[in-house]
Specification:
alpha+beta, 7-stranded mixed sheet, WH-like_DNA-bd_sf, DNA mismatch repair protein MutT, WH_DNA-bd_sf, WHD_NrtR
Length: 216
Amino acid sequence: MLRMSLDVVVLRLREEQIELLLERRDRPPCLDALQLPALRIDEGRDRDLESALDRLLQEWGLGNSYREQVCSLGSRDRDPRGWSTTLVYLSLVSPTTELARGRWYPLQSLPTLRLAFDHVQLIARALERLRVKSRYSTLPVHLLGEEFTLSELQRAYEIILQTPMNTAAFRKRIHRADILCDTGRKRTGKQRPAILYRIESPCCVMFDQVMNGAEG
């Protein structure tokens, strides 16, 4: 019997590091290995892919998270129980999201973890999507909280792309994308007060040019 499932690579940005959501399997195959949030599609319950994805994310407490499909993979080798196909999604959540299950693991610890099935490959595909798309879109904004400063948004890009940004050029690019709304409030602290923004639209907006690190 052909197995059709959804696997979701869920990421958050907390304390300047990207973290990955995983849980430990309590049954074979791959007993005690860590796995991504996953769901086998139920023909009786799931009207379409979107409803199946909604069901999965609700089970993990991630119902309002940003999500997009990354790729589909299938082979006779990815699951010892037989031929299987999965649709891989990327989901980005705020650092304060409360989980219903699973726990967060720093992305830098990934090489030391034992992952189930082909989940290392699935994670690599999703991370590549995040890095590539962050160069030409507003995707990283979905890793921030409900309100954030432009400096915090710039730092999110720098962490994902692993390169510093030219602040003036970055801010010009973000303002031109027209996705932010000034909340009228400011964040105060050791630095001078900074305007707090929120997302005007949940959509991912494409830039007219690719980000080029410190050169803008």
